Amino acid sequence: MTDPAQIVPDTEHRGLVRLLPAAARPYALLARFDRPIGWWLLFWPGAWAIALAGGAVQRWDLILWFLLGSIAMRGAGCVYNDIVDRDLDRQVARTRSRPLASGAVSLKAAWIWLVSLCLIGLVVLLQLNPFAAAIALASLALVAAYPFMKRITWWPQAWLGLVFSWAALVGWAAIARELPPPALMLYAGCIFWVIGYDTIYALQDVEDDALVGVRSSARRLGENVQLGVAAFYAIAITLWGAALWQVRPDKLVLAALAPAAVHLLWQVGTLVPADGANALHRFRSNRFTGLLVFAACFVVGTTAV
């Protein structure tokens, strides 16, 4: 098993979390407020869809609502995941210090915290039109099933892709009240992006996952993990390019994705699978991928005829 001294930190006890009262800090950690990368990754697909559908300027407030919803619902998802995985987390070096696994938060308190976060999500849901709200609610079944995927499939990252990309469908529906082909292609591209970056994230736990029987794409790909991530990213860029092209069929719009493609290429080219710190850094850099793709969607969505 990995030496505890060599474990890549699963959390960052810095910033606002460090300033919270001691009694509140475990709940912030349970919702991963100390790890903003998670809600950034949940937020970006929705922001992309709003921008590409042409609503970034007139509905800038909706982008802010999506940001709040991403923070709350990502937190709720983490709490739910830890409730389901609390026994497994105690067996993995990187996660045994999590609030539920360590006993810092009781199971009853975790459920109360989960409901509280979902109520914030409900406030955001009420800002959507009925069609978009129905699509948002449809994601709950996928979210509920996700923690169990690592027990039954080698590709839980693919299921996470379905979940973490869902905001793309909700965002487009919130603007256009429909889901045309560009929306579906944007969503599909997001799924492969998530599989790629979460495979990188899973590299940190390969040894412990093997010991406790947890499956992942990182374990499945083995020595071919860089090639696999490169393929997932290539498919994502291709699908995003198709989505942009359908909104504005102009060769120049494809150039808008070039910075994001170069950044993803850098991730793959500099990835060191055996180095947990390297993998974590490449994973976290996907918040910058989100910004680059948002810029492309904004340009295309606001200039489409």
TrEMBL record:
Gene Ontology CC annotation, any one: plasma membrane
UniProt main location, coarse: membrane
Molecular functions per Gene Ontology: 4-hydroxybenzoate polyprenyltransferase activity
Membrane-spanning intervals of the chain: 37-57, 63-84, 105-125, 131-149, 158-176, 182-203, 224-246, 252-274, 286-304
Reactions performed catalytically: all-trans-octaprenyl diphosphate + 4-hydroxybenzoate = 4-hydroxy-3-(all-trans-octaprenyl)benzoate + diphosphate
CDD domains membership: PT_UbiA_COQ2 (cd13959)
Swiss-Prot/TrEMBL GO biological process terms: ubiquinone biosynthetic process
Source species, domain of life: Bacteria
Subcellular location: Cell inner membrane; Membrane
Cofactor: Mg(2+)
Class of the enzyme per the UniProt entry, highest EC level: transferase
Family indicated by similarity: Belongs to the UbiA prenyltransferase family.
Its biological purpose: Catalyzes the prenylation of para-hydroxybenzoate (PHB) with an all-trans polyprenyl group. Mediates the second step in the final reaction sequence of ubiquinone-8 (UQ-8) biosynthesis, which is the condensation of the polyisoprenoid side chain with PHB, generating the first membrane-bound Q intermediate 3-octaprenyl-4-hydroxybenzoate.
Full protein name: 4-hydroxybenzoate octaprenyltransferase
Originating organism: Sphingomonas koreensis
Gene: ubiA
